[in-house]
Amino acid sequence: MKNKVYRFFRWLKIIIKYILLLFPAIYKDAYLHIKRIIKKQSNPHILEITLPTTNPVILTMMANFITLTPGTITVDIKESTLFVLDIDSDSNPEHSKRAILNDYNKIFG
């Protein structure tokens, strides 16, 4: 019984962190991409991001987080690797990868 209660509160904590990070990220990135659309700037690239998990629920949550954030779309998932289309003209691919891994660590770390 203790194990079920612990797991419930652990997942509740993860979901709360997920929501608290998701909504500000959506609004911030939407604003930045509106500026890019107006200026007609685009430099799309595919990122290959390997996450330190094979849990399908966590991978799906991260893929959803990435896709809901303007300017990024999760194209494919293979094992623990996400393939992400990033339409970003300002940052290099390594910066985008670090930002996604940082979000992962904030939510699930």
Indicate the topology.
Blueprint (H helix, E strand, L loop, with lengths): L1 H38 L4 E7 L5 H13 L3 E7 L2 E7 L5 H16 L1
What are the defining features of this structure?
single chain, 109 residues, alpha+beta, three-stranded antiparallel β-sheet, 3 helices, 61% helix, globular, cell membrane, monoatomic cation transmembrane transporter activity
Number of helices: 3
- What sequence of helices (H) and strands (E) makes up the elements? HEHEEH
| Rg | 15 Å
* Oligomeric assembly: single chain
Strand order of the largest sheet: 1-3-2
Mean pLDDT: 89
Distance between the termini: 25 Å
Which geometry do the CA atoms define? globular
Fraction of residues in helix = 55-70%
Q: Roughly what fraction of the amino acids lie in strands?
A: 15-25%
Number of strands: 3
Subcellular location: Cell membrane
InterPro entries: Cation_antiport_E
Membrane topology: Multi-pass membrane protein
Transmembrane segments: 6-27
